[in-house]
Amino acid sequence: MRTICLLLLMALLAGCSGEEEPATSSRPAGVIPEQQFYDYVLIESDAGVRHWVLESDEMQKFAGERDVLLVTVRMEFYREGEYFSTLTSDSGRADLQSKNVHTWGNVVVLTEDGRKLETEELFFDNESQLITNDVFDRFTNDDDDVVTGIGLEATPDLEYIEIKQDPRGTIHDAAGEGGGS
Description:
This protein has 2 helices and 9 strands, in the order H-E-E-E-E-E-E-E-E-E-H. By secondary structure, the chain is mainly beta. The chain has a domain at 33-131: lipopolysaccharide transport protein A fold (Sandwich). It has a 9-stranded antiparallel beta sheet with strand order 1-2-3-4-5-6-7-8-9, with no helix packed on it.
């Protein structure tokens, strides 16, 4: 009996090794959410006209925090109620008062016309309606032009995009490829 108790105690201690959960974990180490919702949807609209719709497989609200933690994020953007792009990521946080959203992990913004932004972290400011970051970004348009760099400021429709540091690109000249003038 002593041996079984000792083995159980060792197993419990091994499980409490003090190691933190990985940074990609859906919850802070040792903290249990106050509220937890599955298939969570948050809609930002004005006078019934959609600006964006945020969907998450799971939303966690922790005591004393304004932000909610999101597990798997899909955010669709609209202009005058018409869809134009989608942001997806592994995780995120949303401030329920300001409606600002921070996403991370395999972040992709894909526009209706085929432009694509790939990065590891992105911030959406609801007031300015801009997306920003300070990490590596890869932007591709429907002509297979590619621009990379560090840090950006852009609109969610990717009509305006400014790479902050070390911009590099490969731009294809459609007129030159087909022998046109």
